[in-house]
Write a structure and sequence with these properties.
Helix Hairpins; D-amino Acid Aminotransferase, Chain A, domain 1; OB fold (Dihydrolipoamide Acetyltransferase, E2P); 22 strands
Length: 666
């Protein structure tokens, strides 16, 4: 294909995908795939300007506005941003603008790029009078009534704000709310939203603002357009907005390019724990005078750029469905995929969670799907690509027997969604249990990987995960046994023996979690360890007394007692194997400011992650739990606190914010 034809093909593809993205809210490719198409077109146009189409879609910012709303021009064009995908490209961008202002100091504001719908808000007399979508950058759609339904868009600014002001930012939907909406759409038999961005965009284009209000959108600002003589730098502008009732971006930094690069590195994983989607970091020169001096092209400002992280959502094709057996016997469908890059790694498999999920998605072998990684360790299938549901393709079969042992499958009770292998001796269950037993969140036994565990189970020597410690009863024969396994040299075998020796005295909570007691996760294991000095004491505890432990209700207590009844001699057996778990360290909390308090953290805090806030509470003497109950005495709440805040207020529990907590810690 010649260059002109390729450029024409790319231009048509970009126009089509923009229309589906901005107007129809039905993208058929991921953001990363679209970016790659547009980037190739831009590169070709830059290298061959004589072949560039004067009406190329790269000269436009978005797509034409839909006809359902009044169209109105932006007083100042709402430009797009150039993208950078590496440190080298950021340095190239910096070198480019510095040629235009060599004496200027490179000082930046950096903040997370929220993945939503851009909106421009105009205030006159400090009252919200206009809300415009980006549209094509020159003309947007008037959605003022819809914007008024968003709780963190102030309809009136305080007296310290200027009378006239324009605030630009991003409308988005939290992942939790997106999941709730998809469950509602599943129940109505409607197509799912592929991602929160699509849901937010589609919501803002609803004609009935009452429906918009029910969706629960949010807004975060990223720019202020000041009037003459009022300009302040970006950091100051955002601080003003925070005081005036707008949300505050949870991830932001300021400094030179090195400081920004450090921020980008720390946010690569930290951003995945946020309640909303982000796909990058935006860099802006702090100095408004320098911004004016550098100006913009007809498409992008020269003083700002977006660094994009590797895509966490892409499209690919389902090649088949297989079923995995977990440690409780749960059968999980897994999509076998055409290989695709997601978040910097090659993905060939993605979880489908359970058989009901297959039905909700309407998934067939051969369908094209959106998959995403996000905060998940294992990628998951999110939705079908629009139009795929109409294809006549073979449906996946639900197993009539366990795919590993051939045993009977069924549900534990009528309320359960998952189907399980009911064979107590299924080898796949033991493999999964042993992997959990030695996993990082449990005993963290280095060297106890999947390939080795499969060999250990296949040997028939072990019927329970903890029986691996029998290798230490006769160290020489245990070492020889391991060294004779496939891909296990003597040094690797000795390393595993050393790891097992060290694991015998690991903290009690790790042992409780490692045993794989149903419904007892790491946090519950910590609370049980704090209330019981040993496994013997835990095994002897009555069910009613177990429920006195924070976060242990009737179901957890019953599951624990059932497990103890199934393995009554386990504490003695472990002791005979030399296992002596270390009890929790005694802490003198009497003199600490939050001694005796039972605290819960909820919502998004301005600067602290939930883990950081919980760690600070513990250092101040509080016991931290995950749910609000009558035993809770303190709630530390941030933005979008939700049901936990409502429950705390109903119970009369003290509610504090991050500033108060930090004050105690200073």
């Amino acid at each position: 294909m010649d260059l002109r034809a390729r450029m024409k093909q790319l231009a048509e593809a970009v126009r089509m995908h923009r229309h589906r993205y901005y107007v129809l809210d039905q993208p058929t490719v991921s953001d990363a795939e679209y970016d790659a198409l547009e980037r190739e077109l831009r590169d070709l146009e830059a290298a061959h300007p004589d072949l560039a189409d004067p009406n190329s879609p790269t000269l436009r910012v978005g797509a034409p506005p839909v006809d359902a709303f009044e169209k109105r021009r932006h007083a100042v064009p709402m430009l797009s941003l150039d993208n950078a995908y590496s440190e080298a490209e950021l340095r190239e961008w910096e070198a480019k603008w510095r040629k235009l202002a060599p004496e200027a100091e490179p000082r930046y504001a950096a903040e997370l790029k929220v993945d939503g719908l851009s909106l421009s808000l105009r205030y006159e007399g400090r009252e919200l009078v206009e809300a415009l979508t980006r549209g094509d950058g020159e003309t947007g759609e008037l959605v003022t009534e819809n914007a008024r339904t968003i709780a963190d868009i102030p309809m009136r600014l305080p007296g310290e704000a200027p009378a006239s002001l324009t605030v630009r930012g991003e409308v988005f939907l939290s992942r939790k709310r997106w999941e709730e909406l998809n469950r509602q759409r599943d129940a109505r038999g409607e197509a799912r939203f592929a991602n929160p961005r699509n849901a937010a965009s589609g919501t803002m284009k609803l004609l009935d603002s009452r429906e918009v209000a029910a969706r629960g959108l949010s807004f975060l600002p990223w720019q202020v357009l000041w009037g003459e003589g009022q300009e302040e730098d970006h950091a100051q502008s955002m601080a003003h907005l925070g005081r005036w009732g707008f949300g505050v971006m949870p991830g932001h930094a300021a400094g030179d390019l090195e400081a920004v690069l450090a921020f980008i590195a720390t946010q690569a994983e930290a951003r995945l724990k946020l309640p909303f989607d982000t796909d990058g970091v935006v860099l802006k020169l702090l100095d408004p005078a320098l911004q004016k001096r550098l100006g913009a092209t007809d498409r992008v400002p020269r003083w700002a750029v977006a660094f994009k992280y590797p895509a966490t959502q892409v499209t690919t094709t389902v090649l088949g469905i297989t079923w995995q057996v977990g440690r409780t016997g749960k059968l999980t469908p897994v999509a076998e995929l055409e290989a695709v890059e997601v978040a910097g790694s090659t993905v060939r498999r993605a979880t489908l969670h359970n058989a009901d999920e297959l039905g909700r998605l309407g998934l067939r072998i051969g369908h094209r799907v959106f998959i995403e990684k996000g905060g998940e360790v294992i990628p998951k299938v999110v939705a079908l690509v629009p139009g795929e549901e109409a294809r006549d393709l073979p449906a996946p079969e639900i197993p009539a027997a366990c795919p590993v042992c051939g045993g009977e499958v069924g549900k534990a009770d009528d309320a359960e969604v998952a189907i399980r292998c009911l064979n107590p001796e299924c080898p796949a269950k033991l493999v999964a249990r042993m992997l959990h037993f030695g996993g990082r969140s449990a005993l963290d036994i280095e060297g106890l990987g999947e390939a080795l565990v499969e060999q250990l189970v296949a040997s028939g020597r072990f019927q329970q995960p903890w029986e691996i410690f029998t290798l230490l009863e006769e160290p020489r024969s245990g070492l020889a046994y391991l060294a004779n396994l496939e891909r296990m040299a003597e040094k690797s075998a000795q390393n595993l023996m050393d790891a097992l020796t060290a694991a015998r005295t690991k903290p009690l909570w790790r042992w409780i979690h490692a045993l794989g007691i149903p419904m007892v996760g790491a946090r519950t294991a910590e609370l049980l360890a704090e209330a019981h000095p040993s496994l013997e004491a835990l095994w002897a505890e009555e069910e009613t007394r177990l429920q006195a432990v924070e976060e242990v209700g009737p179901k957890v207590a019953a599951a624990l007692r059932a497990f103890a009844a199934l393995h009554p001699d386990l504490p003695a057996r472990l002791a005979a194997l030399g296992v002596a778990p270390a009890p929790p360290e005694a802490r003198n909390l009497g003199g600490l400011p939050l001694s005796g308090q039972v605290a819960v953290v909820t919502g998004t805090l301005p600067t602290l992650s939930r883990e950081e806030a919980e760690a600070l509470l513990k250092r101040l003497g509080a016991k931290v739990t995950g749910s609000v109950s009558a035993k809770t005495t303190l709630l530390v709440a941030g933005e979008k606190a939700g049901s936990k805040l409502a429950k705390a207020e109903a119970l009369g529990i003290t509610v504090r914010d991050e500033a108060w907590l930090r004050g105690l810690g200073d």
